[in-house]
Amino acid sequence: MKLIGPFKQIVTLANLPLRGKLSDDQLEIINDSGLLIKEEKIETAASFQDLKKQFPNIEIENIEGEQICLPAFTDSHTHICFGGNRANDFAMRNAGKTYLEIAESGGGIWSSVLHTREASEEELLKTTLERINFLISQGITTIEIKSGYGLDVENELKMLRVIKKAQTFTKATLVPTCLSAHLKPRDFEGSSEEYLNYIITEILPKVKEENLAKRVDIFIEKSAFLPEESKAFLLKAKELGFEITVHADQFTSGSSRIAVEVGAKSADHLEATIDEDIQFLAKSETVATALPGASLGLGEKFTPARKILDAGGIFAIASDWNPGSAPMGNLITQASILATFEKLSTAEVLAGITFRSAFALSLEDRGTLEKGKKADFVTFKTDNFQSILYHQGSLKAQSVYIDGEKV
């Protein structure tokens, strides 16, 4: 066993409900505290002095200066395996060009597909690991990563193999998701429905055979795949044994209902979700995941987080880090800005980037600092946990721990 401390505050996030609104007075905050670690798990969080007395011969890892400690964060929606960049898209969008005009001039998702296809596995691995390390530096130790810039058998498998290989180079937990249904590739001769069938018959069996991903995603939108064909695809993917998640209600409403109907683990985006669908979503087991980075990148409205929480939904926040609509990759900044616009409590934000976002990935062994949970946690050099959101991302993580060891 090992004792780490003393911390000015430990915010455990223990004993909070999975769904619905939270107030800051529900937070368990232990002052002048220490974390007891046993076999890569949390044993307890309690008074540092009391733990020292209780275990007089224990190994102590001393924390210098005033620091606070939180569970490490989970980013449950990213696209960080990609080639090239789309800085020109961003500049054109800000200059007033439409999505269609940008796509027609060689930008958009197809631009990322071409760059990713051109990149070797070695190049993709290098840049993906750089982005993983950036996320770890923020205190994020669990990272979902999607394919979706390959859009054929060879290149989708290439992306997923890169993500699998990246896991051997990092202590962070990587959760791969197959997003071959990102959009119909321009070089596919056939309808959208035929392309979705191609994914079911040609891509997903190989993904399963090589154990490259256990999750499947689809972008339901006018510019990608229509609701009915998407629903049929998701049900077939589910029959193959995959867990389901959905890019839902980004520009038009309705697809969050499909996510709930097929039993998706999460419905992500939701910027266009209407009130009656919020109620439908909030009563389900599907996690409603906001992606404020996409709202900031595209100049679109934010996910109606306040309404989702008030309706009793399971609400998470993720970065959507991708080369097009959400290039920032700074989860704390995005979550802090979302909190300002949607009037979210600090407890709601912290829950949304820890145990609630981990639940969206079916990882219920982390996200709180209580007995038996994975000893992933982050420290900040401050005397008050509220400073993290107050500084909107400019207060950087001091130390990040995975399985009780500083990384």
UniProtKB/TrEMBL annotation:
GO molecular function ontology, one term from the record: metal ion binding
Name the record gives this protein: Imidazolonepropionase
SUPFAM superfamilies the record matches: Composite domain of metallo-dependent hydrolases, Metallo-dependent hydrolases
Keywords noted in UniProt: Histidine metabolism, Hydrolase, Iron, Metal-binding, Zinc
Keyword Repeat in annotation: no
Domain Amidohydrolase-related: 69-406
Annotated EC: 3.5.2.7
Iron as UniProt keyword: yes
Pfam families, per database record: Amidohydro_1
Organism of origin: Kaistella jeonii
PANTHER family xref list: IMIDAZOLONEPROPIONASE, IMIDAZOLONEPROPIONASE-RELATED
Pathway the protein takes part in: Amino-acid degradation
GO cellular component: cytoplasm
